[in-house]
Model the fold of this input.
Amino acid sequence: MTTDARASCPMHADFDPLSPAFLADPFAVQDALPRETPVFYAPSIDYYVVTRYADIEAVFLDEKTYSAAPAQLPLVQLVPEVTQILLANGLPLPKAGVIAELEGVRVAAAIAADLGVGDSPPPFDGTGACFIEMGAASAALVEGDWYAEPEPRVTIAEPDATHAAEKRAFESERLERWFAQ
Done:
């Protein structure tokens, strides 16, 4: 982002999405922004901010014009203590994709409920399962109750062709859901 680009865009020097006021009531902060500047530069985060729904939708739908690459970076450096969930035995919750997916689905449902769409979901219960491929025609099924106390309960089913078929179906369903047009 160049200085010239920032100079040509309205700027709100006081806008800070990490401020206590914004975190306490983001809608009040947004309501206080001038309506005539729905897009502005925020120096506190070194990003442009888009505030109207139609404009946000247009940005998300035009990936060739607008890049979300910088938005993937954390606004602040994350400390190790907040990047993991510790279990009852003191070890971190495994960072398996299936656990991340389950947590993400729960968070998405909670956000939707906050916006008045659907009911608030129960907390993530710490259970999850995944497959371990043991060759082209064999896989084991690992199931875990990761929040169990005094330590997680994990079972590993013997590798077999049935689990391999279930693994392929699981993968196909995810690929279809995530990437199908």
